[in-house]
Automatic annotation (TrEMBL):
Species of provenance: Caenorhabditis nigoni
Lineage, top ranks: Eukaryota, Metazoa, Ecdysozoa, Nematoda, Chromadorea
InterPro entries: DUF38/FTH_CAE_spp (IPR002900), F-box_dom (IPR001810)
The DUF38 domain, residue ranges: 134-273
Domain annotation F-box: ranges: 4-40
Pfam families per record: F-box (PF00646), FTH (PF01827)
Protein name: F-box domain-containing protein
Gene designation: Cnig_chr_V.g20826
Length: 328
């Protein structure tokens, strides 16, 4: 029987090129000759996405490949660290858990030559401040990430500005903030909105968070899914988002959440004008506005029992008969 090492380079490279992360990791540990061959030929790994989640003395990374998703956790354990892959655990002595993570990360990224579809970085507020700084410093020194979509997500907000400042302002596309409980400390956006990383990002989403920052700091996003704190007491501020959606050639969709529905619909009609009534069962209100893009219409809609206002683009042919298309 022919072993892998007896195979010609062409079929060998094909086999390695269509293996996932677990194949590369496993084969490198079979023997020195196989490890040296892999490191010399550098087969393309074809990763689609990477998701890194940081918790207290623990890092979990998910390598997404078209054949498999591999999740590996690195955590502090005794005088070293422990890795967990599925039901398998391995203990490494006298090595810091973060060092162990970066060793594996940088090794695997050597086999990734094409751009990722996405790269997501999530940080839990329970992380030690020193560990956050240490991780981000190493992040800057790690193998460059070729990605079409760099996303940042944060649990809780105290470390938010510091984390943003360490990311490439020209690469960050998506920012997500999520708070575990409504009564947890809110986030102060005063300094965040001044950062280039914030200004250059294209998408913003928040969960379990009422944002008190002025809407003008969100108009550069092409996508928004969030809740503004003063939407009912200051509904005219919605005009800021409406004008951004009309004027921006990059606008895609805004989803604005609110609570305490009392009298809010009447206020919407005061802001956007008389609505077009659609679907008597749901009592849906619609507004239509011309935009800077030819044949594209901004549609704003709200349903009576819904707690969201949707801003989206439609083709002009999709405007219902009898509906007025307003100008700004």
């Amino acid at each position: 029987m022919v072993s892998l090492l007896d195979m010609p380079d062409v079929p060998m490279n094909l086999i390695l090129g269509y293996g996932g992360p677990s194949v590369i990791f496993s084969l490198r540990k079979v023997c020195n000759n196989l490890r040296d061959y892999i490191d010399r030929t550098m087969p393309e790994l074809h990763l689609k996405a990477i998701d890194i989640c940081l918790g207290y003395k623990r890092i979990t990374i998910t390598w997404s490949h078209y054949l498999e998703n591999v999740e590996i956790s690195y955590m502090l354990h005794g005088n070293g660290y422990k890795t967990i892959v599925g039901e398998n655990e391995k203990f490494v002595e006298n090595v810091d858990y973060m060092e162990g993570f970066w060793n594996d990360y940088n090794l695997l990224m050597k086999f990734q030559n094409h751009s990722l579809q996405s790269f997501e970085l999530e940080m839990n507020n329970s992380m030690d401040v020193d560990d956050v700084s240490k991780f981000l410093k190493q992040y800057q020194n790690s193998w460059l990430i070729k990605t079409q979509y760099l996303s940042l997500g944060i649990f809780q907000g105290d470390k938010f500005p510091m984390i943003l400042q360490h990311l490439d302002a020209n690469c960050l596309n998506s920012i997500r903030f999520f708070r575990r409980r409504k009564y947890d400390k809110n986030i102060d956006f005063t300094e965040i909105v001044k950062l280039d990383q914030w200004k250059n990002a294209k998408e913003f989403r928040s969960d379990n968070l009422e944002i008190s920052a002025p809407m003008k700091h969100f108009t550069h996003f092409s996508k928004i899914n969030t809740e503004f704190e003063y939407i009912l007491t200051e509904p005219e501020s919605l005009n800021v988002l409406k004008e951004a959606a009309i004027r921006s050639p990059k606008f895609e969709k805004f989803i604005i959440e609110y609570h305490t529905f009392i009298e809010s619909r009447q206020r919407l009609s005061e802001v956007f004008g008389k609505p077009f009534f659609h679907d008597d069962r749901q009592n849906k209100w619609l507004w239509f506005f011309n935009t800077c893009r030819e044949e594209k219409i901004l549609k704003i809609d709200n349903t009576e029992m819904s707690d969201r206002i949707y801003f989206s683009l439609i083709d002009s042919s999709m405007v219902p008969n009898g509906a007025e298309v307003k100008n700004l």
